[in-house]
Fold this sequence. Notes:
Chain A is α/β, with parallel strands linked by helices. Chain A is built from 31 helices and ten strands. The longest helix of chain A has 47 residues. Chain B has one domain: Ferrous iron transport protein A (FeoA) (SH3 type barrels). Chain B is mainly beta. Classes of the chains: A alpha/beta, B mainly beta. Strand 10 of chain A pairs antiparallel with strand 5 of chain B, so a sheet runs across the interface.
Amino acid sequence: MMSSAPATLPFVVLVGNPNSGKTSLFNALTGSAQKVGNYPGVTVETSSGNLKLGSGTVQLMDVPGLYSLRPVSADERIAVDIVSGSSKVDAVVAVLDATSIERGLVLVSELLEAERQVVVALTHTDVVRSEGGEVDVPALEAALGCPVVEVIAFQRKGLEELLQTLDSVLGKPVSTGLNLVYPQIVSAAIASLQERFAMAGVDLSSSEARHAILDEDSVFLQQLSVDRPELAVAIQEARDGVSEGGSSGRMLDVQARYAWASHVRSKVLTKSPVVSRRASDVIDRYLTHRFTGLIAFVAIMFVVFQSIYTLAGPLTDAIESAVGWLQGVVSPWLASAPHFQSLMVDGLIGGVGAALVFIPQIAILFLWIALLEGTGYFARAAFLMDRLFGWCGLNGRAFIPLLSSFACAVPGIMSARVMPDERSRLATVLIAPLMSCSARLPVYVLMVSAFIEPRYGPVWAGVALFGMHAVGLAVAIPIALLLNRRILRATKVPFILEMPRYQWPRWRDVWLTVYSRVRSFLQTAGSIIVALSVVIWALTYFPRSDASDAIYAGDYQGLSTSVRDRVSEEAYIGQRRIADSYLGRMGRTLEPVFVPAGYDWRLTTALIAAFPAREVVVSAMGILFGVESDGGEEVKLRDRVREATWPDGRPLVTLPTAVSLMVFFALCCQCMATLAAIRRETNSWKWPLFAFSYMTLMAYAAAVIVYQAGTALGWS
Amino acid sequence: MAASTGTLDNPVLRLSEMTVGSRGRVTAMSPTCKLCLRLLDYGLTPGVEFTVTKLAPFGGPIEIEVRGTRICLRSCEADYVCIAPLNEP
Lengths: 716, 89
């Protein structure tokens, strides 16, 4: 691999258990200069930033949380690859949480054995001391044989010392004073294996022997079974010998590490906390209670959801009017070159606007996620919700991405990061666009107000609106099951949730979460949105010439006065232009495909025009049905749509067509921002294409079924 | 002691059957199950003692305190763990 300039810097990895304070430490060390990126080919994210040490700059990388160097999930596999794979790692900063020190020590013991240069950053000692415990740092250093620095990231305590210590160990030979004690059965097996290897003339150290026996996944045996089959047999016999007592090698290994860890703990935490978690337990008595807990959950989610709707609305409007203002300013400057003018104003600036409008929703949702995670409530909510989401193959954490997708799938998909493993994350990303987002509302409102409310009254109008929101959800559940059972191949990971103590959120971490999400959305998804906007603009704009405009104007004069009274010349030319554009031609070509769903070429064209964003369908229909833009378009469009006919005079949009259109929009994935977000989150074009195909096919099939059934039942 | 140990095939008590506040000790785990690897990572090793601290409503996950940390597991996953009840000291 060719390395660019920054890759030649000394490489330091930040490793630790999830919830150990690793991310807070990373934020405190690198600040907003961090780069968040997907690891090639997977949905796993790593962050990196540069650190200035006395002797020069090093690159620090934050990898997904780990419990051991034997990965279970895809995220962990990436982290383990980085930490203990073949790549060059100059040092490891191991974050050790003093409040769950045994578990952290197990990981540290594996890092030390992997012969990495380790500096331990000991976190949460303030919590231990506040509960009456005492921490003996020199004793920990003595037990591990590596430097230990106490850090309190949010108070920036110990950061300087950590950097100095890191600087002093870089480039030094690795030394470890680790001494794990294994049960008799294991040490006997090690000795006899070493003996058998020695007889065969192969030198095997006792730690190599132990790994060969206890680590079932070690590649050692596979290599050996080719080169020296008789030695492979010896290893297999040793493995069988140790697991006779009903424990696997892995179990014996972990047990020995925990025994060592609890011994270290007893020396380091000289006075254990007396009353632990009292405050958290009191809060939990209400927040995880089967009745008050559920009420609190609903209330909190209501506030979250409501704030996305109401706070994002004005901000989105402001962004839209700023973009409109810019378009108004730029447009006259370019009047001399109309094609370029339209490219800049409608294509490029419009496209940038289309990406920017998502910022308020993304920022607000991630503000909430950061607050919920930061306080520790998220784990409680997942605890309460797991039963509800668990049976379709998801887990309790899915409520955030799925619920927020009802406002907008883009932040919803981005928030699928909260899912703990790749498989459930992918499943969530792929069903999130089925939640009925707010951009579908204009389509529902148009159809309901034109065809349902006038005839069946406001109650049925409400039922229809609710039904449309329920359709997506009802479809999402079987799809989630199907994805989990048949399609997603990632390993299934048990859902084990850790309950952290409640604590005040750290504002720096909250801000960095929001900032890095918005920035990474604009950098990756934003550029895709702008590019697609320009493509769609070109399809609706070209071919265009003065000659054809003159023909349209001539045709307009040839229309009867009664028609001309209803449609202005401007609207008529707009209608003809889009009809003759590449997009309009696509609409005509595809018309036969959509006739079974009840759509003519105009509705088909509007459907294609709405590929970038569903809500565009309303304005596209406005142009296609010859409504001029002078305010009050909605009422006019409603009337025009009702008056529109097939060439043979039958009314175009009847009740079955209206419902079929709504169902199509409820299920389709007509939103390039969603696709761009899926591309960004899954790091491949495969999944956005998959989501688009399955949703479009499903939407089409449902639309045809609804139209045909409705027509057969005699709705009109 | 042997009477309260149980085996995987014939457990004395399953984790999912315990009530809030009761204590137990892990006696055995299926050595072949992949899920158990994850439980080991969280410190739920044979021989370790734990306290049941919470039960989620409607048969949801069960929260236990083990080695100073709180973890929640689903009852279907907890069934891979064989435990023995401990009396309050």
